[in-house]
Amino acid sequence: MRFLTLRGAFGCRVLAVALGLAAGLTTLSPLARPAVAADGLQQVTDFGSNPGNLGMYVYAPADLPANAPLVVAMHGCTQSASDYHTHSGWQKFADAWGFAVVYPQTGPANNSMSCFNWFDPAEDTRGRGEAASVVQMVDRAAARYGSDRHRVFVTGLSAGGGMTADLLAAYPDVFAGGAVASGLPAQCATSLAAASGCQYSDQRLTPKQWGDKVRGSYPGYTGPWPRVAIWQGTADGTVAPVNGTELRDQWTDVWGVGQTASGTRSLPGGTIESTYDDPAGRPAVALFSVSGMGHGLAVSPGSGADSCGSTGTYYLDRVCSSYYTGKFWGLDASPGDGEGTLPAPSGLTVTGTTGTSAGLSWTAVSGAASYAVYRDGGKVGSPTGTSFTDTGLSAGTAYRYTVAAIAPSGAEGTRSGAVTATTTGAAPRCYTASNYHQVAAGRAHQSGGYTYANGSNQNMGLYNVAVTHTLKETSPGYFVLADGGC
Predict the structure, then answer these.
(1) Would you give the end-to-end CA distance of the chain in angstroms?
(2) Euclidean distance between CA atoms 484 and 486, whole angstroms
């Protein structure tokens, strides 16, 4: 996908055949049950005035209960609702966790490359164009399925990711959370002329300036802000990796939590998750940086619980982003989870640390069958007793822990207050500089006009002074990309 001079901000570099809508989809009539495609996708036409001229497609598991969550999933350029449904993995988790998925679809009538117009104020602002059409789809689906309006989420890839950020900014009263995959910050561009600069260049705005773009999208709003997950490949040549950092800056500023990560953890596919917690210790923003990944949506075909999707053009075999996004939003939990009958454990204490481990203890909760231990928002243990030792940690690093009691039914109670454990030893050192200066300092090398990190040999992009990255020295002379935080 590349920038286009025609109306549209993402095109396709290698896709030779446009992706068509799967055959067999029929229109949903309020008077008759619709025909359903082999993959269960249904087209809906009666969802409102549709000022953005979009198509609406829905997937809902059989016997979906009332008050289930609702997810909106937006495709990238040259793609379609059916294509995104087939490859993204959302169907698997809709079936497993119980929620409906709405797939908006744009087309050549709106944009020559079937991109969502994330850079056009007539299409991406509150009450206008494509953004208004998406919210009409939410209203229609929520009415049809009895969805929980407090658990409506939106995600998108590339241009769909850019529109996702704009929707989160314009409609924080509609969406409880979002996930931007290889996309752009909210309101990064407000014209076609400015769009390519957002794709390829650091906009050099402060976190407050980024946050102001969100606050200005719905002036006077005083309610809760959406929780935002950000997925970015470090080798993305279509949407520069700096966009992930800018999205982090934007939404952490909106939340008022600062840009220093509350914690990090390693995930499959060379992915580093950095979380930024709200004052209650719950992640408000998460940045998933996928080492060496180009432009696309991270999927991980397979049968495992954390596997999903299928590979294809701009669907890259790395890690199941839909799984980790769904867990970040809490889709794997019932509405009452975290607010259950069991109280939060008291007396959570750090009993000791080494360079690679941290010990914890807490007071028993009456009626608990076991406990869930969370490190930086991610579950790391399920002990039956009131102590736990977390291993495999990095030296000289601070980690935040919370604990919740688990009832015999499996229902999770309220999480405890957080404690911080800092492992012994020296923390890894990080260096932020242009690729030219990283090479000059001996942390990277160049070959064929490209820059590679010493040790890991991760591709850092062109060898020049315009491209900037953060490198972390995990052991003497061994450097890895750490744009998501040290």
Answers:
(1) 30
(2) 7
The pTM is what? Answer: 0.68
The residues assigned a catalytic role are 158
Alpha-carbon distance values, 192 to 3, 169, 353, 451 (Å): 10, 20, 53, 31
Q: Where are the beta strands (DSSP E) in 183-327?
A: 227-233, 263-267, 271-277, 283-290, 297-299, 315-317
Kindly list the distances between the CA atom of residue 143 and the CA atoms of 66, 117, 196, 325, 367, in Å, as whole numbers in the listed order: 10, 27, 39, 25, 39
Domains and CATH numbers, the chain: 27-329 (3.40.50.1820), 349-422 (2.60.40.10), 429-481 (no CATH)
- Backbone φ, ψ for residue 161 (5° rounding): -70, -40
Report the alpha-carbon distance of residue 454 to residue 216 in Å, rounded.
Answer: 43
CA angle 338, 300, 116 (to 5 degrees): 85
- Helix spans in 216-338 (H): 242-255, 321-329
The string of pLDDT tens digits covering residues 87-143 is 999 999 999 999 999 999 999 999 999 999 999 999 999 999 999 999 999 999 999
More confidently predicted of 297 and 280? 297
Are 360 and 401 in contact by the 8 Å Cβ rule? The answer is: yes
Task: Identify the CA nearest to 286 among candidates 207, 178, 184.
Answer: 178
Cα distance between residue 371 and residue 349, in whole Å:
15
Tokens of 16: 């030779």
Summarised one tens digit per residue, pLDDT across range 214-250 is: 999 999 898 899 999 999 999 999 999 999 999 999 9
